[in-house]
Structures are given as structure tokens and as C-alpha cells.
Amino acid sequence: MRVIALARRKGLELAWFAFALANVAAMVVWPSWETIPFHLIWISLTLLYGFRVWRPERTYAVLLVVALATGSLILFDAVTDTQPWGELFEVPLMSAMFLAMVWHARRRQQAMRDVERQAEERASLLGRQERFLHDVSHELRTPVTIAQGHLEVFRRGPGEHAQEIDVALDELERIERILERLLLLANADRPDFVVLDEIDVEPFLEDVFMRWSEVAPRAWRLGNVSAGTLRADPDALRIALDALLENAIKYTVEWDEIELRGNGRGRNFVLEVADGGCGVPAEALGRIFERFARADAARSRARGGVGLGLAIVDAIAKAHGGSCAVRAARSGSTFSIQLPGFSAARMSIPAPAPH
Known about the structure:
This protein has 355 residues and is α+β, with helices and mostly antiparallel strands. Helices cover 59% and strands 14% of the residues. It is built from 9 helices and 8 strands. The strands form 2 sheets. The chain has a 5-stranded mixed sheet, covered by helices on one side. β4 and β5 form a beta hairpin. The longest helix is centred in the middle third of the chain and has 67 residues. It starts with a helix and ends in an 11-residue tail after the last strand.
């Protein structure tokens, strides 16, 4: 491919060279009309440079040859009174315009190289971060599992430190959940991150709602759910809803309202988790779905969060070609996931009764 591109560029340059020679010959043959081929030479040179930016030394050499060739012909015609002397000013003017175009083209080329370099550095940095998360998560799972096993053995035996062992096991379980989420985020950019299937949204959301309604004493409510099917990954979607409902529990107190609902909007399906808790500060709305971001750092750490749950929701939504958002109210907040691929259920019309 590189050889073909090089051959095309060489062919373009040879074609321009032949075109320029033909116009120089026209300037010699028809001196009274030489301004027309003169301008054709300079315009074609400018167009050629737009397709093929040469190195500085080559650019200045071509410019010098064109300026001397066209300028000497106009000078000769001016001496023989074929052209007025004022036509000589065309040569430095066209040269200056060409140099200005060269300067802008080189600035644009340098800017494009800078952008490409920054994009490569950013991609490399993201790749290293993903590999780091993946490797660290894998390496830490083994010692966590071993420590949990030993603590379980100690807890079954007679001892005076049962409460301390329970605390240690809870912390290890928390570390294990963090590692699972890190592994999930590390795989978020893989093409097989989600496996699409047809989901009947009504029983799916009812199942998610029933599981969580027994977890914490809240005023649980299953809101309106549009009947139909959604093309999505059921396991990934369940993880995203679990993260939103877990987040709602963290930021509510006993008997605060938490509502799960889902509405079809054309070909899109919007899942919403609304709560009547403390809400999200306005300054946190723009970054709440970023990794390790917290609406309230002190409260999140106290309740066991590290700012990965909502990042997982965002990754799952984007993997489906959708998006997620949050709306804050005076009391509480509403998190939503919008996904494509929804097909509303057709309403069955009962057959008319026989007369």
C-alpha cells in the first residue's frame, strides 16, 4: 500500500511537471497571452502543494525555478514591448502568496502530527492502565481468597475474637467486590464485553426488583414498565441495575422511597432508579460516572464505596450503544440508562363475539 501511494505521488508530480512545461512553451509561443499560462502554472503549483507537502529545501528549489522561468519570460517580453513592465510585479506577488500558503500548510501539518502524537500517547496510557487494573485485580484475588479461608477456619474454632474475625471477613469481602469491579472495568473495551440477547423487560425488572426489595428496609416501588423486548446483555444489564440500586440504598435511610421503572421511547428503552435520599451535589453531576469519583468522599468511604459502581453502569451503557444520566432534585435523585434495541409489545385485539 505504501508503494502504491508513493507511485501515485510521483505520478502526480510528473503530471504537474509536464503541465508546467506545456504552459512555459505557451508563454514563449504566444507572448501577448502569456499571463494566462503564467497564472495556470502558479495555481497548479499551489494545488499540487496542497496534495503533496514537500520538504523545505525542495519547496524553495521548485519555487525558485518557477519564479526564474516565468519571470525571465515576462522580463524578455517587457523589454521587447510585448508586455507592460507592470506584469513583472506578478512574480513576487505570486511567490509571496505561495509562501504564505506553504506556511499555513506546514502549521496545519505540524498541528495534525501533534494531535496524532497526543492521541497515541493517550491510547498507550489507557492501555497501560487497563493492563495494570487487570493484572493487579488478578494478583490480589489469590491472597484475599487464602486469607478468607484461614479466617473461616479460625471462626469455626473456639476463640474470643469472633467479632474481630467477622470484621476482617467483611473487609476481605469488600476487597473482593472491588477486585471484581476492577476486572469488569478492565474488560469494558473488549468486543465481547456484552453478548446481546432478547430480554422480556417486564419479568426481567420484576425479578431484579424482588431480589432487592428484601435487601434493605426501604419504601420499595416498582413503577411503570413498558411491555416489550429489549436486545441487550441480561447479565451486564443486571449488574448495572444492581449498581444503581446499591447506590440508592447507600444514599437513603430507612423507609426512604426507591423506585425502579422502565419506559419505552420509540426504539429506545429508558431504565430509571429514583430515590428520595440526600441527592447529588450540583458540582458532582458532571463527573459522577467517572472512575473513582464520589458525590461525597467521606460518606462513600464510610459506606464502603470506592466510586466504581457508577463507572460500571456507564461502561455497560456505552457497550450497548446507549448512555446514562443523572437528575438531581431537592430531595433525592434519579439515575437513568438509555439503551437502543427496544421493541414494544403489540396489543392483542380480541375477536368479536359471534352474533
